[in-house]
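User: Run a structure prediction on this.
Assistant: Running it now.
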Amino acid sequence: MSARTTRRSALQAAGALLAAAGWPVAAGAATPGIETPPEPGPPRPLKLPPVEQVRLANGLRVVVAPRSRVPLVTASLMVMAGGENEPAGRAGLAAAAVGLLVKGARRGGRAVGATALAQQAEALGASVDSGSGWRSASLGMTVTTPRLPQALALLADLLRQPLLQAEEWARARDQTLDELRLTLASPGSVAAMAARRVFWGRGPWAASATPASLQRIGIDDLRALHRSAYRPERSVLLLAGDIDAAAALRLAERLFGGWQASGAALAPVEPLAPASALQRLVLVDMPGSGQSGVVLAAPFAALGDAERRVAEVASAVLGGGYSSRLNQEVRIKRGLSYGVSVAGEMQPGGGLWTAQAQTQHATAAQVAELLRSEVLRLAQEPPAAAELAARQATLVGRFARRLETGAGMAAVLGSLLAQGRPLADLGGYVDEVQAVTPAQVQAFAQRHWRADALRVVVAGDLSGESGAALRALDAGALVRPLSGIDFERADLGG
């Protein structure tokens, strides 16, 4: 008797027992919840907490999203400056600056080192998270409500009074260089870095940190960025969780009310549109690499565009989950990769959308063609109603899950703040996503995802038949050895 037959017999016996006990079981019907999946229920209404905000006299913005279900608060201190504010040749400066804040600060009139700071955070039952992206850098902690004042006092000292010591930067730089060496050994990471440069061509949005750019960053660069960017008028105190606006304002006034900036502020960043390389295919030779990384880069909505929700839904149709078009073609039908990931970023002068997969060298050319053909197909074949509804449900469900916790709510609000969007956008997200039509998705693809606008980068071992197949895709392909690539140049030349 097979294992499957044994399971069926067990289920039939279970059904008989249920019937004998008086439970209604239809004759010949599958056991609900075991052989037949349950029908989806009606969508639950999304309950959004009230979000309040106020500015202190020094310009600091205080944003509060109360949630009293559990006694936890996520606190995030955001500074509205990121990678776009890095001087040319200093890519990685913004991340280095915020990372160095936790390596030493003045507290209570004395210098406190990295180990003692970490111990102080652990005594509050938490750790300090730091990060940097486009247009923002942040420090954050999630603590129980009674410990919020001490946690905020710690974050305030880290942000306002960092030591910024040369020896700490030397150690941090060595660690970052080690991590970057691993990154540059990964075909997927190399392809992504090259695609960014190939798509944007120039300006801050094209930059990625490199060993050369990190070596140029000195402690004076870090201190200068802190003086010009870490200022109250560029900062936001974001609190999400078990706290009300009145208590938040009292804490903010006590810990940040006396904060005053000095010196010149950062200059505004000029919006730059993409200046893509002429070559539509770029091949990076990485001899001995285990697999190939394939990245397709395409235009996306710009920051503030009215069609941003259409762009997000179009992206989800192509790559928003296991059953999306790209995963259907690359993973499910052909088994060429474990999956295709997509990402869209919106910048003031334009946007970048990428689809990325890792595959065997022998199938890299096939994957590159599949990515390209599926993106182009969306302009000809809009999603059917059921396909679109599934992708919209994915976006709405992901959004709703993030709002379930204070940390998730803080992340959503932080993203809006970094984009310069009004916080009222939070309440309109679901309706705006669900209002997108198949015709709008198709029109977006027709405008933005034309054949001449797409760029493909493949990084991997180009020897043998796999390399020949990739070169055959485009006679005008740009071919560079990894050892000869300069990621700070638009033509990737050495």
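The radius of gyration is 26 Å.
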